[in-house]
Automatic annotation (TrEMBL):
Species whose genome carries this gene: Xylanimonas oleitrophica
Keywords: Acetoin catabolism
The protein's name in its UniProt record: Acetoin utilization protein AcuC
GO terms of biological process kind: acetoin catabolic process; epigenetic regulation of gene expression
Lineage: Bacteria, Bacillati, Actinomycetota, Actinomycetes, Micrococcales
Residue intervals passing through the bilayer: none
Amino acid sequence: MRLARLVWGPELLRYDFGRGHPMAPARLDLTMRLVGELGLLASPELEVVPAAVAPDALLETVHDPAYVAAVRRADAGTPDPLRGLGTEDDPVFPGMHEAAARLVAGSVDVAQAVWDGAVQHGLNIAGGMHHARRDAASGFCIYNDAVAAVQRLLDQGARRVAYVDLDAHHGDGVEQMFWDDDRVLTVSVHQDGHTLFPGTGNAADVGGAGAEGTAVNVSLPPRTGSGAWLRAVDAVLPAVVREFRPDVIVSQHGADAHRRDPLSDLRVGVDAQRTAARWVHDLAHELCDGRWVALGGGGYAVVDVVPLVWSSLVAEALHTPLDLGRPLPTAWREHVESISGLDAARWLGVETVEWRPWGEGYDPADDVDRSVLATRKHVFPLWGLDPYQD
């Protein structure tokens, strides 16, 4: 059994909303070039597989058939703005249905491989389209591959699946689809929805009737930095996931919480995002016999953030974490500069994050601490946990 399976192929670059759109396929291309230059693709522990096109029957496990038909019509030239198809966020492009369906097939493939025991860890950095709803596109997301992966695990016999979302934007599509399902825990750490799309993810949103406590939202103020972000993640995530006792963890690693990202107001560095990925990985080994499915997501600082965060994610899944001070390969840097005209990052990271665990005390004057406590007050008692204690 190999350690990890990664979905990749040039066909995944066809998920392309066009010139000027924030979700540029170059972010995937540059990531995979860096993964290759770092020698990760040559690891004997890594299996790389292409993404097929998901058939309608698979898409319809999580999307209404009428919506899938609407995507096909939009692909053929008939937009449907009422279903989010042909909007500023989700403009129609040729081959849209097929490109989006590949993301679903890829995430389901690695989820199935993890469940079958073929690999311990599955990766689809092109996935993580967490905003798509059952009947509509939203926020650059046509089909929701994260939901499809979780649903496949449930259909295959998983009793409980934990979904962890570290994107700067609330994982609203995943939460909404499993709102009433007590088999799925959704934990989203994101910028306050009063200040950022999609405007949801309040601390008081804890799940539907019979599933109270299975939606967990850590809603952070703008300008939250690396140390405070890690403190927030650590203060909530491990406790609720341990109480939930999942069979599998599916995580979304949108890189847009970074201070250089143009579409959020958080200030979370590469090292903090690497650390959080390690925590999720460790929880998978502690609780799930290593069963972990890791997806990409948002991230719009295409040159100097996304490739660094996601190549680190691949290395983490291979149990070979990258040295933060490691110089980045010259060939990769030269390619970045030739296509972008920008100076490429010279090192993987330049800061080691210091953070203060929750157990060292709550500060009522701190905006982040107040946000974290709000989540703990709403959620922890539902799990028999004390919101004020570790």
